[in-house]
Amino acid sequence: MTIEQNLVKKLRSSNLRPTKQRIEICKVLFDRERTFHFTISDLAKILNLNSKNKISLATIYNTVEILKSKGHLKEISINSDKTFFDTNISNHHHFFNENTNELTDFYDEDISRIKIKKNIPGKKVKSIEVLVKIANSN
C-alpha cells in the first residue's frame, strides 16, 4: 500500500472525505521519519510554503481537530494560549524549551518512577504525562 493510500485510509477512518487539501495536510503530518510537534500556525506556514494551492486555516484547523478526536494526533497544552499537536500518540513526556518554542519527546526510562499519592473518588489514573519547561540558564 502506498503512503497516499494509507493517508486516504486514515482520512476515511476519521469520516473525512480525502480531498487534495486534506491529503496534503496528512502528508506533512504523517509522511515523515520522526515525530512531528506543531501548532496550527506552524502547520499552516509549512503547508502554504510548500503547497501549490492555498489551504485555508479553517480546513487545517478542522482536519487537525478531527484527526485528534479520532486518535491520530495528541494535543499538548503548554499554557492557556499555546497548544501543540503531536503525531506520536503513545504515552510519553515532553520538554518544552521556552526560548525556542520547541517541544521534544522523552520517555519513561528517562525519569524515575512517578507515584501518585492522591486518589480522586470514582476516577482512575489513565496515564501520566510529564511536561518539563526549560529555558536558557543565562
Helix amount: 25-40%
CATH class of the largest domain: Mainly Alpha
* Strands side by side in the biggest sheet: 1-3-2
Structural class: alpha+beta
Which architecture name of the largest domain does CATH use? Orthogonal Bundle
Q: What is the overall shape? A: globular
The arrangement of helices and strands along the chain is HHEHHEEEEE
Mean pLDDT: 91
Poorly predicted runs of 5 or more residues: none
- Quick one: CATH superfamily of the largest domain? Winged helix-like DNA-binding domain superfamily/Winged helix DNA-binding domain
Oligomer: single chain
Largest sheet: 3 strands, antiparallel
Count of separate DSSP helical elements: 4
What fraction of residues sit in β-strands?
15-25%
Total DSSP E strands? 6
Termini separation (Å)? 50 Å
Using the coordinates shown, work out and report the CATH topology of the largest domain.
Arc Repressor Mutant, subunit A
Q: Domains counted in the coordinates: how many? A: 2
What is the alpha-carbon Rg in Å? 17 Å
Description of the molecule:
- Helix 1 crosses helix 2 (20-30) and helix 3 (40-50) crosses helix 4 (57-69).
- The relative contact order is 0.13.
- The termini are far apart.
- It is built from four helices and six strands, in the order ααβααβββββ.
- It folds into two domains: 3-83, Arc Repressor Mutant, subunit A (Orthogonal Bundle), CATH 1.10.10.10; 88-134.
- A three-stranded antiparallel β-sheet has the order 1-3-2. A three-stranded mixed β-sheet has the order 5-4-6, with no helix packed on it.
- The chain has helices at 3-13, 20-30, 40-50, 57-69; strands spanning 37-38, 74-79, 82-86, 93-97, 102-106, 131-134.
- The chain is an alpha+beta fold.
- The chain is globular and about 50 Å long.
- The model has no long low-confidence stretch (mean pLDDT 91).
